[in-house]
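Our platform keeps sequence and structure together, in a single record for each protein. Because each token names a local backbone shape, the row as a whole describes the fold. One such record is reproduced below, unchanged from the form in which we store it:
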Amino acid sequence: MPARRQALGGRLELVTLDLRALLRELGVETVAQLLALPRGELAARFGEPLLRRIDQFIGATPEVLVPHRDPAALEVGCSLEHPTADRAVLGYVLAELTERLARHLAARDQGAVLLVCALKYTGGQALLLRVGLVEPSASARQLMELVDLHLETVTLAEEVAHVELRAAVVGRLGERQGQLFTDRWPTDPHQLAVLVNRLASRLGYEQVLRPRLRASPVPERAVGYKTAIDFGFRISDCGLKKANPQSAIRNPQLRPLLLYPEPVPIEVICVAPDGPPRLVWLEGRRERIVAHWGPERIETLWWRGPSVRRDYYRIAPESGAPRWIFRRLVDGRWFLHGIFA
């Protein structure tokens, strides 16, 4: 009670937004001002709900707190009257369960991100199939296709007596705007997500990867790879823009689109020992460098392992795309590291 009385001079936080706006228009902005008004006038002008909220605030009327409960897990199942190991029968049962699960998901405006299929044997053991998706989906056809791809890769040890299908992780379905003109090939990220789902189900989740940036100044260490099926991943996060080869020379912030896994040794002739390159040998032929930008010094910090010190140049040879080369400062050798394609 003392804590409630100390809050009487505070702003009105016990009424709805619409009623709060109406009270402000009348000059009532604090709880103390509201309590000073006659209860009969408040009931006549604003109704009984306002008086009930006031009584709950001062403790004269109990206030029942309704806890938030997560919706029940989306799970469907079917017990087989005659246990079977026939994949055609299991496929029919799974198709029926997938249809039911998809309807429940669509009714909640949700889609499955992780689907768990449990095939329970007659002996009590269970075979679990975990189907991950790039984007939430409530399409029965897509979900059944992925479940079927996983089912093809396993061997049934016994006859199956019970089948369960559960949406272990769900996400909100995103709105998709239709196209007015469809004469061109659509660039729909949803189609790419469907492709990634199929590849991961067929090849395995560890075989389908996506690039990930790392905080490293060394270019060959700045990008790593992780599995594409990730609950926090969206296919729209990996869009890449193609760089303009000419602007790659003028703009020092751009990096080549094609980077060699390891720098390739090359021969370069410079006017001065530490000056910019003038001639370069590429693919066994000598080419004159018509334009260059640099040097850009890249080096690692001493506490991060062996030192790397390089001077990078962006060069435009007489023929072909611009290249990204560097001089290794420890011995003066030159290397080709990337191509601005």
Observations:
- Residues 1-9, 231-250 have pLDDT under 50 and may be disordered.
